[in-house]
Design brief:
The chain is of the alpha/beta class. It contains twelve helices and eleven strands. The strands form two sheets. The chain has an eight-stranded mixed sheet with strand order 3-2-1-4-9-6-10-8. It is globular and about 70 Å long.
Protein backbone atom coordinates (compact mmCIF):
# COMPACT_ATOMS: atom_id res chain seq x y z
CA UNK A 1 0.00 0.00 0.00
CA UNK A 2 1.25 3.53 -0.72
CA UNK A 3 2.08 5.76 2.24
CA UNK A 4 0.43 8.81 0.69
CA UNK A 5 -2.88 9.25 -1.11
CA UNK A 6 -2.88 12.45 -3.18
CA UNK A 7 -6.44 13.72 -3.66
CA UNK A 8 -7.14 16.31 -6.34
CA UNK A 9 -10.61 17.81 -6.87
CA UNK A 10 -11.02 19.31 -10.34
CA UNK A 11 -13.74 21.29 -12.05
CA UNK A 12 -13.55 22.10 -15.78
CA UNK A 13 -9.74 22.33 -15.82
CA UNK A 14 -8.19 19.51 -17.90
CA UNK A 15 -5.26 21.64 -19.11
CA UNK A 16 -4.51 22.79 -15.59
CA UNK A 17 -4.35 19.32 -14.07
CA UNK A 18 -2.01 18.17 -16.85
CA UNK A 19 0.72 20.45 -15.49
CA UNK A 20 0.11 19.19 -11.95
CA UNK A 21 0.36 15.54 -13.06
CA UNK A 22 3.52 16.34 -15.01
CA UNK A 23 5.10 17.62 -11.81
CA UNK A 24 4.03 14.48 -9.93
CA UNK A 25 5.77 12.37 -12.59
CA UNK A 26 9.01 14.11 -11.58
CA UNK A 27 8.86 13.20 -7.88
CA UNK A 28 12.04 11.66 -6.45
CA UNK A 29 9.90 9.50 -4.13
CA UNK A 30 7.00 7.63 -5.75
CA UNK A 31 5.40 6.14 -2.63
CA UNK A 32 1.97 7.60 -3.45
CA UNK A 33 -1.28 7.06 -5.29
CA UNK A 34 -3.28 9.80 -6.99
CA UNK A 35 -7.07 10.08 -6.78
CA UNK A 36 -8.65 12.60 -9.17
CA UNK A 37 -12.20 13.63 -8.32
CA UNK A 38 -14.09 15.22 -11.21
CA UNK A 39 -16.64 17.46 -9.50
CA UNK A 40 -19.45 17.35 -12.07
CA UNK A 41 -17.44 19.07 -14.79
CA UNK A 42 -18.76 19.72 -18.30
CA UNK A 43 -15.18 19.78 -19.56
CA UNK A 44 -13.70 16.66 -18.01
CA UNK A 45 -10.10 15.53 -17.57
CA UNK A 46 -10.81 11.81 -18.04
CA UNK A 47 -8.65 11.60 -21.18
CA UNK A 48 -5.82 13.49 -19.47
CA UNK A 49 -5.84 11.05 -16.54
CA UNK A 50 -5.95 8.10 -18.94
CA UNK A 51 -2.81 9.40 -20.66
CA UNK A 52 -0.95 9.28 -17.32
CA UNK A 53 -2.13 5.80 -16.32
CA UNK A 54 1.11 4.20 -17.46
CA UNK A 55 3.26 6.73 -15.63
CA UNK A 56 1.45 7.13 -12.30
CA UNK A 57 -0.58 5.09 -9.84
CA UNK A 58 -3.71 7.09 -10.62
CA UNK A 59 -7.49 6.64 -10.51
CA UNK A 60 -10.31 8.82 -11.82
CA UNK A 61 -13.77 9.31 -10.31
CA UNK A 62 -16.67 11.38 -11.66
CA UNK A 63 -19.39 12.65 -9.29
CA UNK A 64 -22.14 15.24 -9.23
CA UNK A 65 -21.02 18.77 -8.45
CA UNK A 66 -20.83 19.48 -4.72
CA UNK A 67 -17.78 21.74 -4.34
CA UNK A 68 -14.14 21.07 -3.57
CA UNK A 69 -14.51 20.32 0.16
CA UNK A 70 -17.00 17.49 -0.29
CA UNK A 71 -15.09 16.24 -3.34
CA UNK A 72 -12.03 15.83 -1.12
CA UNK A 73 -14.16 13.86 1.35
CA UNK A 74 -15.31 11.66 -1.53
CA UNK A 75 -11.74 10.92 -2.53
CA UNK A 76 -10.68 10.16 1.04
CA UNK A 77 -13.16 7.29 1.34
CA UNK A 78 -11.23 4.97 -0.99
CA UNK A 79 -7.75 6.30 -0.19
CA UNK A 80 -5.30 3.49 0.57
CA UNK A 81 -2.53 5.57 2.14
CA UNK A 82 -2.07 6.31 5.83
CA UNK A 83 -1.66 9.99 4.96
CA UNK A 84 -3.96 12.14 2.81
CA UNK A 85 -2.35 14.83 0.66
CA UNK A 86 -4.67 17.47 -0.82
CA UNK A 87 -3.61 19.62 -3.78
CA UNK A 88 -5.61 22.08 -5.86
CA UNK A 89 -5.52 21.50 -9.59
CA UNK A 90 -3.68 24.81 -10.21
CA UNK A 91 -0.65 23.76 -8.15
CA UNK A 92 2.71 22.56 -9.46
CA UNK A 93 4.67 20.36 -7.06
CA UNK A 94 8.45 20.63 -6.52
CA UNK A 95 10.19 17.36 -7.36
CA UNK A 96 11.37 16.67 -3.78
CA UNK A 97 7.98 17.32 -2.14
CA UNK A 98 7.15 13.67 -1.34
CA UNK A 99 10.77 12.93 -0.43
CA UNK A 100 10.82 15.84 2.03
CA UNK A 101 7.41 14.87 3.39
CA UNK A 102 8.56 11.29 4.01
CA UNK A 103 11.52 12.57 6.02
CA UNK A 104 9.27 14.90 8.05
CA UNK A 105 6.83 12.20 9.14
CA UNK A 106 9.71 9.97 10.24
CA UNK A 107 11.12 12.52 12.69
CA UNK A 108 8.21 14.86 13.52
CA UNK A 109 5.26 13.80 15.68
CA UNK A 110 2.50 15.83 14.06
CA UNK A 111 -0.90 14.81 12.74
CA UNK A 112 -0.89 17.33 9.89
CA UNK A 113 1.58 19.26 7.77
CA UNK A 114 1.16 22.20 5.45
CA UNK A 115 3.44 24.54 3.58
CA UNK A 116 3.44 27.94 1.90
CA UNK A 117 2.75 28.61 -1.75
CA UNK A 118 5.07 30.49 -4.06
CA UNK A 119 5.52 31.54 -7.69
CA UNK A 120 8.00 29.70 -9.89
CA UNK A 121 10.43 31.65 -12.05
CA UNK A 122 8.64 30.73 -15.27
CA UNK A 123 5.24 32.02 -14.11
CA UNK A 124 3.82 35.13 -15.75
CA UNK A 125 4.46 38.57 -14.25
CA UNK A 126 0.82 38.80 -13.16
CA UNK A 127 0.96 35.38 -11.49
CA UNK A 128 4.11 36.43 -9.64
CA UNK A 129 2.50 39.71 -8.58
CA UNK A 130 -0.62 37.97 -7.25
CA UNK A 131 1.54 35.45 -5.40
CA UNK A 132 3.51 38.32 -3.85
CA UNK A 133 0.32 40.07 -2.76
CA UNK A 134 -0.99 36.87 -1.15
CA UNK A 135 2.19 35.86 0.69
CA UNK A 136 4.40 38.86 1.46
CA UNK A 137 4.87 40.14 5.01
CA UNK A 138 4.12 43.64 3.68
CA UNK A 139 0.73 42.62 2.30
CA UNK A 140 -0.74 39.89 4.49
CA UNK A 141 1.65 39.88 7.41
CA UNK A 142 3.17 36.73 5.94
CA UNK A 143 0.34 34.57 7.32
CA UNK A 144 0.17 32.63 4.03
CA UNK A 145 3.89 32.54 3.36
CA UNK A 146 5.15 31.76 6.85
CA UNK A 147 8.11 29.40 6.60
CA UNK A 148 8.11 27.50 9.88
CA UNK A 149 5.43 27.39 12.53
CA UNK A 150 4.22 24.84 15.06
CA UNK A 151 0.72 25.61 16.17
CA UNK A 152 -2.57 24.03 17.12
CA UNK A 153 -4.19 26.99 15.32
CA UNK A 154 -2.15 26.64 12.13
CA UNK A 155 -4.22 27.23 9.02
CA UNK A 156 -4.33 23.94 7.13
CA UNK A 157 -4.37 25.31 3.59
CA UNK A 158 -6.44 22.90 1.52
CA UNK A 159 -4.43 23.51 -1.66
CA UNK A 160 -1.41 22.05 0.17
CA UNK A 161 -2.53 19.91 3.09
CA UNK A 162 -1.17 16.66 4.51
CA UNK A 163 -3.18 15.02 7.27
CA UNK A 164 -3.21 11.58 8.88
CA UNK A 165 -6.16 9.69 7.43
CA UNK A 166 -7.36 8.44 10.82
CA UNK A 167 -7.46 12.01 12.16
CA UNK A 168 -9.28 13.27 9.06
CA UNK A 169 -11.90 10.56 9.50
CA UNK A 170 -12.18 11.24 13.22
CA UNK A 171 -12.87 14.91 12.49
CA UNK A 172 -15.47 14.00 9.88
CA UNK A 173 -13.57 15.58 7.00
CA UNK A 174 -14.65 18.89 5.52
CA UNK A 175 -18.02 20.12 6.78
CA UNK A 176 -18.05 23.19 4.55
CA UNK A 177 -17.46 22.67 0.85
CA UNK A 178 -16.58 26.11 -0.55
CA UNK A 179 -14.75 29.26 0.60
CA UNK A 180 -13.20 28.82 4.02
CA UNK A 181 -13.69 25.06 4.25
CA UNK A 182 -10.05 24.63 5.26
CA UNK A 183 -10.32 27.30 7.98
CA UNK A 184 -13.31 25.51 9.46
CA UNK A 185 -11.42 22.19 9.43
CA UNK A 186 -8.36 23.89 10.95
CA UNK A 187 -10.52 25.25 13.77
CA UNK A 188 -11.83 21.79 14.69
CA UNK A 189 -8.36 20.28 14.29
CA UNK A 190 -6.93 22.70 16.87
CA UNK A 191 -9.92 22.37 19.20
CA UNK A 192 -9.33 18.61 19.25
CA UNK A 193 -5.86 19.19 20.67
CA UNK A 194 -3.85 18.39 17.55
CA UNK A 195 -0.91 20.41 16.30
CA UNK A 196 0.34 20.94 12.77
CA UNK A 197 3.72 21.82 11.34
CA UNK A 198 3.94 24.59 8.75
CA UNK A 199 7.20 24.32 6.84
CA UNK A 200 8.59 25.39 3.48
CA UNK A 201 10.06 21.89 3.11
CA UNK A 202 6.72 21.09 1.46
CA UNK A 203 5.90 24.32 -0.34
CA UNK A 204 4.02 24.24 -3.64
CA UNK A 205 4.01 26.52 -6.65
CA UNK A 206 0.53 27.98 -6.96
CA UNK A 207 -0.13 28.86 -10.59
CA UNK A 208 -3.17 31.08 -10.21
CA UNK A 209 -4.93 31.73 -13.53
CA UNK A 210 -6.54 34.96 -12.32
CA UNK A 211 -7.24 38.14 -14.19
CA UNK A 212 -7.33 41.31 -12.08
CA UNK A 213 -11.13 41.17 -12.08
CA UNK A 214 -11.33 37.50 -11.08
CA UNK A 215 -8.71 38.19 -8.39
CA UNK A 216 -10.86 41.02 -7.04
CA UNK A 217 -13.92 38.76 -6.92
CA UNK A 218 -11.90 36.04 -5.18
CA UNK A 219 -10.55 38.27 -2.41
CA UNK A 220 -13.98 39.92 -2.05
CA UNK A 221 -15.34 36.44 -1.27
CA UNK A 222 -12.45 35.86 1.16
CA UNK A 223 -13.46 38.98 3.08
CA UNK A 224 -17.09 37.90 3.27
CA UNK A 225 -16.11 34.38 4.27
CA UNK A 226 -14.06 35.62 7.24
CA UNK A 227 -17.16 37.22 8.78
CA UNK A 228 -19.34 34.21 7.94
CA UNK A 229 -16.91 31.85 9.66
CA UNK A 230 -17.04 33.98 12.77
CA UNK A 231 -20.82 34.25 12.70
CA UNK A 232 -21.61 30.59 11.99
CA UNK A 233 -18.64 28.68 13.44
CA UNK A 234 -17.38 31.17 16.06
CA UNK A 235 -13.92 31.22 14.50
CA UNK A 236 -12.11 34.28 15.94
CA UNK A 237 -11.28 37.31 13.83
CA UNK A 238 -7.69 38.39 14.40
CA UNK A 239 -5.94 41.72 13.86
CA UNK A 240 -4.51 40.84 10.40
CA UNK A 241 -8.05 40.13 9.20
CA UNK A 242 -9.09 43.69 10.09
CA UNK A 243 -6.30 45.43 8.19
CA UNK A 244 -7.81 45.33 4.67
CA UNK A 245 -11.07 46.85 5.95
CA UNK A 246 -9.06 49.54 7.75
CA UNK A 247 -7.11 50.15 4.55
CA UNK A 248 -10.32 50.48 2.53
CA UNK A 249 -12.09 52.81 4.95
CA UNK A 250 -8.93 54.86 5.36
CA UNK A 251 -8.49 55.19 1.60
CA UNK A 252 -12.09 56.36 1.09
CA UNK A 253 -11.66 58.86 3.93
CA UNK A 254 -8.38 60.10 2.42
CA UNK A 255 -9.91 60.63 -1.03
CA UNK A 256 -12.82 62.57 0.45
CA UNK A 257 -10.52 64.61 2.68
CA UNK A 258 -8.27 65.42 -0.26
CA UNK A 259 -11.30 66.65 -2.20
CA UNK A 260 -12.50 69.01 0.53
CA UNK A 261 -9.36 69.86 2.53
CA UNK A 262 -6.44 69.20 0.16
CA UNK A 263 -3.70 70.35 2.54
CA UNK A 264 -4.66 67.72 5.12
CA UNK A 265 -5.78 65.07 2.66
CA UNK A 266 -2.45 65.12 0.85
CA UNK A 267 -0.71 64.25 4.11
CA UNK A 268 -2.78 61.09 4.45
CA UNK A 269 -2.39 60.36 0.76
CA UNK A 270 1.38 60.52 1.12
CA UNK A 271 1.19 57.71 3.70
CA UNK A 272 -0.51 55.46 1.14
CA UNK A 273 2.03 56.60 -1.44
CA UNK A 274 4.93 55.67 0.84
CA UNK A 275 3.41 52.25 1.47
CA UNK A 276 3.05 51.48 -2.23
CA UNK A 277 6.55 52.76 -2.97
CA UNK A 278 7.77 50.29 -0.37
CA UNK A 279 5.73 47.54 -2.08
CA UNK A 280 7.22 48.51 -5.45
CA UNK A 281 10.79 48.40 -4.17
CA UNK A 282 10.46 45.20 -2.15
CA UNK A 283 8.49 43.26 -4.77
CA UNK A 284 10.80 44.33 -7.59
CA UNK A 285 13.87 43.20 -5.64
CA UNK A 286 12.35 39.96 -4.38
CA UNK A 287 10.96 38.95 -7.79
CA UNK A 288 13.85 40.51 -9.75
CA UNK A 289 11.43 42.08 -12.18
CA UNK A 290 10.33 45.71 -12.49
CA UNK A 291 7.24 44.67 -14.47
CA UNK A 292 6.18 42.21 -11.77
CA UNK A 293 6.95 44.89 -9.18
CA UNK A 294 4.62 47.42 -10.82
CA UNK A 295 1.93 44.75 -11.14
CA UNK A 296 2.42 43.88 -7.45
CA UNK A 297 1.44 47.46 -6.56
CA UNK A 298 -1.79 47.00 -8.51
CA UNK A 299 -2.55 43.51 -7.18
CA UNK A 300 -1.84 44.62 -3.61
CA UNK A 301 -4.30 47.50 -3.98
CA UNK A 302 -6.87 45.12 -5.50
CA UNK A 303 -6.32 42.61 -2.71
CA UNK A 304 -6.74 45.10 0.13
CA UNK A 305 -9.71 46.82 -1.50
CA UNK A 306 -11.49 43.61 -2.50
CA UNK A 307 -11.04 41.85 0.83
CA UNK A 308 -11.92 45.01 2.74
CA UNK A 309 -15.11 45.62 0.76
CA UNK A 310 -16.19 41.99 1.16
CA UNK A 311 -15.50 42.13 4.89
CA UNK A 312 -17.43 45.41 5.31
CA UNK A 313 -20.30 44.22 3.11
CA UNK A 314 -20.77 41.09 5.20
CA UNK A 315 -20.73 43.10 8.44
CA UNK A 316 -23.35 45.57 7.18
CA UNK A 317 -25.44 43.24 5.00
CA UNK A 318 -25.10 39.67 6.25
CA UNK A 319 -25.71 36.89 3.75
CA UNK A 320 -28.54 34.48 4.41
CA UNK A 321 -27.35 31.19 5.96
Amino acid sequence: MPTFSIIIPVYNRPDEIMELLDSLCQQTNTDFEIIVIEDGSNLTCAKVVEDYASKLNISYHFKENSGQGFSRNYGAVDAKGDWLVFFDSDCVIPERYIENLSKLIEVENFKAFTGPDAARNDFSSLQKAISYSMTSFLTTGGIRGKKVKVDKEAHLRSYNLVILKDVFQELGGFRKTNMGEDMELSHRFGKSGYKALVTDEIKVFHKRRNTLWSFFKQVFSFGRTRIQLNRVYRIPIKIPHLLPASFTLGFVFTVLLTSFIPSIGLVFLSVYGAYFLMILFHSTVSMRSLVAGFLAVITTFVQHLGYGLGFIKEVLIPSKP
